[in-house]
Structures are given as structure tokens and as C-alpha cells.
TrEMBL record:
GO cellular component: plasma membrane
Database matches in Pfam families: MFS_1 (PF07690)
Record bears the keyword Transport: yes
Protein's recorded name: MFS transporter
Localization annotation: Cell membrane
Gene3D superfamilies per UniProt: MFS general substrate transporter like domains, Multidrug resistance protein D
Keywords from the named record: Cell membrane, Membrane, Transmembrane, Transmembrane helix, Transport
CDD domains named among the record's database cross-references: MFS_MMR_MDR_like (cd17321)
SUPFAM superfamilies: MFS general substrate transporter
Organism per entry: Serratia oryzae
Length: 465
């Protein structure tokens, strides 16, 4: 390929990753408008986000394995078609069920094309220097996708209506589909072609995560401490335990269990899971607080979240890696999480019905964004350190899976806490405050786990190839 063709391939692949991250955040802002338009209950509203995240979490590793087995370009194209159709149909939704189903379809499509796009990127840029530049562009675009979703979600909703936050994907998807033939085929190697596809593993982890989310979402009808809620939580844990058993039995598991027994890898994934129970809920709760309590428009709410998103993006790009290079992953994780907890606690204690954005939101979200941004690259490095190079993609996929599951479960818990507070006679602002403080408590547990489980002096950023 000449330089122009390489540049076009990079643009196509980065565009899909941008859209995958954008679609996670772009629906956070118009949640009040979606609720009013389709008649969502407060507890069910979270499924607009969680249907997408849970399905990605359940099928991301399966998508990566399918790309290796059946050809990367083929799976990339299939995922992109599914995602684009889900976006188109989702914009026409006339009921909560239809929107939730189409969001799940979008998530399944993204779970197919995202790992295939990453593999294609490595195939297009085999030379190390070019590959590093391409991976830098990939990372930067992915981070900007989440931030762009917050801004575009508000602007599009105010100008065109919430349905266009889904329809905006359609022309982008059609454009990339039309040019997919320019990408290398990415044929499967002989070893991957003979492996079996662990479909049951993907179904079990997705079902376990979805059941756990549903347990908290359904608590608005039956109560947070009811037997039904507790029974669903037990059922979800049984499904996840069955997933672990299946993974220990099948020939080609999605998640090889022995990797998790390593203190560094298993500990990093546990920290990722617990820390992300706070990140997603914080964005959603603050977006709802600004619109429902402070009276912000959708555009103002998106801009109001920008400082936290920018702090997270800049800290993860520069501050975190710089600290890892100087010290080690464990102290960076611990320090970042302490700042994250402090920011969440400040935010949770500041939310009030008569507060201003500058006083109630800005200080806490900035500190939380900086803390999370510092810790995020450190546990990412820890999660792949000591893993064989051939399994780096798998280790990265595992971190993404725990991140998505943590965010989905954390959002479900936060919404359940808010609803329970309202049912108990507290104000909406107090309910939002309790949700943030509970999230801070989950990160405290993650901090303790990091301190006890992660080994000291393991790596620096410069040793990771």
C-alpha cells in the first residue's frame, strides 16, 4: 500500500472505534428527553445505556475470536452492518422495548467490528514505527469519541431531537461499509481456523451481567431488599460461576481462567471492575442532576460534563504514563484512586437543590477525572504485564470486558439507590448524592483490593512492548 492508502485505512478503522465509544456516551445526555418521549420508568431508563454496554461486555471477546477464525475484514463488515441497522431502527423506536433491543443490536455489532478493526490495524501497519503511530492515533480517537459523545449528544438533541443521536451513525456506517474493500482481507491463520467458538461462554457472561443489572433495575417495583431482588442477584452470581466452570472445561475459552490467578492480571481486572462501577454512574447521575435539578438544556449538560471528561482524557494520556515511567504501576493506581475517591466524595456531598454548577459539580468532577485518568493507564499496563505477547490482545479484551460490566452494574446500583431514596421521602438531589457516595464506596473497596492484591515493583511503561 502507498501512503495515501495507508492513511485512508487508518481513517476508516479509527472512525469505527470513534463511533463505538461515542455511542456509549452520546445517549447519556438525552435520557430525560427519551424518558418523556417513550415513557420509560426511572429504573428502566438505564437500559438505554446498559443494553449497549452489557452486550459489548458479553460478546467482545467472542468477536475477537470470530475475527481470528473467519477473517478479520469479513467480521468487521458484518459487525458494521449490524451496528448501522441497529442505529437506523433505534431512531424509529416507538416503545422502551424497541429502543432497548436496538441498542443491544448496536452493542452486538460493535462487539464484532471493534476487535476486528484493531486486528486489521495491526495487519495494515506491520512495521513497528508505523504501528506505534497508528496505535497512538487509535488511542487518541477512542478517547475523543467518549468526549465528543457528551457534546454532540446535547447539541443534536436540542437542534434535531434525541432520535438523531442514533441516526447520526447511519451515514458514517454506510461510508465505511462502502470503502471496506480497501482494507486487507485478514485471513485466519491455520491455528485459529481449527479452534472452536466459545458461544456458551459469551452467552453466560452476558446473561449473568444482564441479570445482575436487571436485579437492581427491577428493584424500583419490588424494593431493593426484597426476596425477588436478592434472588435475581443470586441467579446472576450462579450464571457467572457457571461461566467460570465452562471456561475451565472448553478447549478454546474466551477467558482462560489461569490468567486470572496471576496476582497482577487478576488484581488489575478486579480494580478495573470496581473503579468503573463509579465512572459510568457519575456521568449519568450528573447529567440527570444538571437537567432535572439545575434546569440545564441538553447542550448545557453536555458542556457541563466536559471538564471531567477532558481531565480524564488528558490525565490518562500524559500524567498517568509519566508517573508509571518514574515509579511503578501499583503506587500510581493507589494514588489515582485516592484522588478519584476524594473527587467523588466531594461531588456527592456538594449536590443540592439550590447549588450552582461551579460549586456543586466542577470541583468534584475535575478531581475525580484527574484521579481516574491517572489510575486508568496504570491498571491497563498491570493487566498485560507478565502475559505472553501472543495473549496481549486477550488481556486487553478482558480489561475492556470488566470495565463494561463494572460500568453497567454500577449504573444499575446507582439508579436503584436514587429510586430507593425517593421512595423513602428524600429529594431527587439527595438521591443523586447518595448514588455518587455509594459509587465512592465501591472505589474504596477497589483501593483496598489494589493495596492487598497487586504486587509491588512490577513494571514501568517503558518495559511494555
Amino acid at each position: 500500500m502507498n501512503s495515501s492508502q495507508l492513511r485512508l485505512c487508518l481513517i476508516l478503522l479509527c472512525t469505527t472505534q470513534f463511533v463505538a465509544l461515542l455511542d456509549f456516551s452520546i445517549t447519556m445526555i438525552p435520557l430525560p428527553q427519551i424518558q418523556e418521549s417513550l415513557g420509560f420508568t426511572p429504573g428502566a431508563l438505564q437500559w438505554v445505556i446498559n443494553a449497549y454496554g452489557v452486550v459489548i461486555a458479553g460478546f467482545l471477546l467472542l468477536g475477537g475470536r470470530a475475527a481470528d477464525m473467519f477473517g478479520r475484514r469479513r467480521v468487521f463488515l458484518l459487525g458494521l452492518v449490524i451496528f448501522t441497522l441497529g442505529s437506523l431502527l433505534g431512531g424509529f423506536s416507538q416503545s422502551p422495548a424497541m429502543l432497548i433491543i436496538t441498542r443491544a443490536v448496536q452493542g452486538f455489532g460493535a462487539a464484532l467490528f471493534s476487535p476486528a478493526a484493531f486486528s486489521l490495524l495491526l495487519a495494515v501497519f506491520p512495521e513497528q514505527k508505523q504501528r506505534n503511530r497508528a496505535l497512538g492515533a487509535w488511542t487518541a480517537v477512542a478517547a475523543s469519541g467518549f468526549v465528543a459523545g457528551l457534546i454532540l449528544g446535547g447539541i443534536i438533541t436540542d437542534l434535531l431531537g434525541w432520535r438523531w443521536v442514533l441516526w447520526i451513525n447511519v451515514p458514517v456506517g454506510v461510508f465505511v461499509i462502502a470503502l471496506t474493500g480497501l482494507l486487507p482481507e485478514g485471513r485466519p491463520d491455520s491455528e485459529s481456523a481449527v479452534k472452536s467458538l466459545d458461544v456458551w461462554g459469551a452467552i453466560l457472561v452476558a446473561a449473568g451481567a444482564a441479570t445482575l443489572v436487571f436485579a437492581f433495575a427491577n428493584s424500583e417495583h419490588v424494593g431493593l431488599t426484597s426476596l425477588t431482588t436478592l434472588g435475581l442477584i443470586v441467579l446472576s452470581l450462579m450464571l457467572l460461576a457457571l461461566f467460570v466452570w465452562v471456561e475451565s472445561q472448553v478447549e478454546s475459552p474466551l477467558m482462560p481462567i489461569p490468567i486470572f490467578w496471576r496476582r497482577l492480571t487478576g488484581g488489575a481486572n478486579l480494580v478495573s471492575l470496581l473503579a468503573n462501577t463509579a465512572l459510568g454512574p457519575t456521568f449519568v447521575v450528573v447529567a440527570l442532576y444538571m437537567q432535572e435539578i439545575l434546569g440545564f438544556t441538553a447542550t448545557q449538560a453536555g458542556l457541563g460534563l466536559l471538564p471531567m471528561a477532558a481531565a480524564f482524557t488528558l490525565s490518562s494520556a500524559w500524567a498517568g504514563p509519566a508517573l508509571i515511567a518514574k515509579v511503578d504501576t501499583k503506587p500510581v493506581i493507589l494514588g489515582g484512586m485516592v484522588l478519584f475517591i476524594a473527587g467523588l466524595a466531594l461531588l456527592g456531598l456538594s449536590l443540592a437543590a439550590d447549588a450552582s454548577w461551579a460549586a456543586s459539580i466542577l470541583p468534584g468532577t475535575l478531581l475525580a477525572g484527574i484521579g481516574y485518568g491517572i489510575a486508568f493507564p496504570a491498571w491497563t499496563v498491570a493487566g498485560i504485564e507478565g502475559v505472553d505477547a501472543v495473549d496481549h490482545g486477550l488481556a486487553g479484551g478482558m480489561l475492556t470486558t470488566t470495565q463494561e460490566i463494572g460500568s453497567a452494574v454500577g449504573l444499575a446500583i446507582g439508579v436503584a439507590i436514587s429510586i430507593a431514596a425517593l421512595a423513602g421521602g428524600d429529594s431527587a438531589a439527595q438521591g443523586f448524592s447518595y448514588a455518587i457516595l455509594v459509587s465512592a464506596g465501591m472505589v474504596v473497596i477497589g483501593l483496598v483490593c489494589a493495596a492487598l492484591i497487586l504486587p509491588g515493583k512490577t513494571t514501568t511503561l517503558g518495559t511494555v512492548q
